[in-house]
Amino acid sequence: MHSASKRFAILSNMNFLNKKPLFFAVTAAVFLGILLIVFREFAFNPDTLMLNSDQLNGIGSRILRAENAVVTEWDDSRLGGVPTIDALFADVYHPLVWVQFITDPARAVGFKFILTVWVAFMSAMLLAWNLTGNRWWAALLGMLYAFSPEYFTYIYGGHDGKMMVFAIAPLALLAIRKIVRDGSLPYLIILALSITWMILGSHLQLTYLFLWGAGFYTLYEAFFHCDSFKTKGKRIGLAAAGLAFGLAISCFQVVPPYMYTTTQSVRGEGDHTNLGHAVSWSLHQEELAQMLLPGFIGVDVYEYDDKAGKRAADTLRDGLTRLNISFILSDINCGQNDPNDALRANRGEFVKAIREAERQAGDSRSQKARGNLGTRDSTKLRAGSQLLTKSFWDPGL
User: Is the dihedral of CA 218, 223, 228, 233 positive or negative?
Assistant: First the structure.
C-alpha cells in the first residue's frame, strides 16, 4: 500500500510536464545542457575558440564592431575583398550578433553556433509536435534534426548563414501551416519574423531557395485543406502578407548585396548566371544519398596530417625565393598542427608567437640596414615578412 501511494505521488509530481509551455521550456533547457556538454571544451574554457575552418577570417571586423560599434564598409579577408554586409554572414545585423557585445568577440562565434543549433531543436520540435500530436516524439525528432550529420557538421565549415536558415525553417513551415489551415494572424507575425531571421543571416541564396519551396508548400496546403476558392485566396493572401512584412523588415540586408552583385561582382556576370554554372555546383551522388540516410562523415577535421597547408607554405616560400624577396621563417604553431589550431587552443600564446615573429623580422631588417644593403633590399625584406605573417594571421586579433 505504501509503495503504491509512493508511485502515485511521483506521478503526481510529474504532472507539471503535461502543460505544453512548461514541457517545451524544460525540454529546451535540457537540450541546451546537452549542447554545453558536447562543446564543454570550448564553453567552459575562456582560452579556447570554436573549431571551424572559416569563421576566423573576418575576426578583425568583429572585434572592431564590438569595441567601437562600427561596421566596416569593406572586408578584404574574403574573396579578395567584398562589402562587409555581403562578407560577414550573420555578423552584421542578425539577432544573435548581441553575443559579440557581452563576451569575447572571438569566442562569440562559437556561442553563436551553439545558440543556432538550440534554435534548430526548438523550431523542429514545435513543427514535429504539431504534425504528430505527441510531445515525446516531438522532442526526439527535434533532437534528430538538430544533430543530423548534414546540419551539425556545418559548424566546422563555419557556415553560420546556412545553419540559421535551416534552424528557423521548421518554424516558418509551421507558421504557413497554421496560416493556411486556421487563418492565424499571430502565426503571420511568426512567419514574417522567421523570414527576417533568415535574411539577416546573410545567406540570401539558401533563403531564396527556401522561399520557393515554402511557396509551393503554401499552395499545397491551400488547395488540399481549404474548402472554397474564396478561402484559398484569403489564406494565400495572408501567407503572402507575412512574406511581404518579412522582406520589408529586412530589406536593408537585401538591397546592398543585390546592387553589388548585379553591378560590380563577377558573380553577376553572364557566365555565372546561366544554367550550366548553376548545375556545376550540384550535389554528387554520395551527398544526395546522405541527405536521406545519414552516413559517416569520415573527415579528419583536426587535420593532423595537413598536407595541403604544408604545400601552400612551401609554395609561398619558393615564390618569395624566386622573386628574390628576403623573408624569415618562424614557427607560430605553438606545438599545434597549424596556426588555426594554435589560435583556437590558446590565443594568448599564439599572439605571443606572432609578436616574437615580428620581433625577429625587425631584428633582421636592422641587421641588413647596418650591413649597408640598401633601402630597396630592406623594403623587400619587410614585404616578405609581412606577407608570410598575413598568410597565417589576421592583425585584428
Answer: positive
